[in-house]
Amino acid sequence: MTAPSLFRRNVEFEIVPMRASDCAEASALHGAGFARAWTDGEIQALLAQEPVFGFMARQSGRRAQPGGFVLARLVEGEAEILTIAVHPRHQRAGIGWRLMGAVLRHLRAEGAASLFLEVDDGNDAALALYRKIGFSKVSERAAYYDNGGGAKTTALVMRLDLG
Ligand SMILES: CC(C)(COP(=O)(O)OP(=O)(O)OC[C@H]1O[C@@H](n2cnc3c(N)ncnc32)[C@H](O)[C@@H]1OP(=O)(O)O)[C@@H](O)C(=O)NCCC(=O)NCCS
After folding, report:
1. Annotated catalytic residue 25
2. Which residue in 57, 123, 128, 158 has the most C-beta neighbors within 10 A?
3. Is residue 136 in a domain?
């Protein structure tokens, strides 16, 4: 009997805390999701900062392929998502949701009050994910992102109340 797809997709990847040794793979994932990849060194430098933490989605088994990662920072009760990327091959399988869930569990355990993020107002996939989690827009930054395609695009600043 074939397992239901929801069950299969939930066991294929495990969500684990990010370590320094994950940064090269995280850089590759970042490059698959964004016009300018953060380098291995940039991600290592972020993760080395005390308030920064992250999670990887890692395929269980021998190959242990990474499916996505998230980096966040918590300072004095206020947190922000620094970046999140899921490999294009594994998108829309619940990994982004699970990575964000791991961040939220960590922040609630730490007693954080709110979580902020910035997102391009044309990034429909990310906006749908964040709205499903419960984020709402608090402000806009016009002409914020330079995607290399001419006109700069607007950033939405979104917040989730963790109280
Ligand atoms: C945004 C991103 C992280 C989402 O990750 P994902 O693993 O594909 O998302 P999930 O499968 O967990 O989706 C969870 C929910 O988000 C919404 N969603 C995600 N991708 C979507 C899409 N392409 N279109 C519409 N809704 C989408 C849906 O509500 C989805 O729930 P559902 O599948 O039950 O309908 C992924 O698209 C990505 O890495 N994009 C490139 C990098 C990026 O833009 N990062 C965010 C920068 S702010």
Report:
1. no
2. 57
3. no
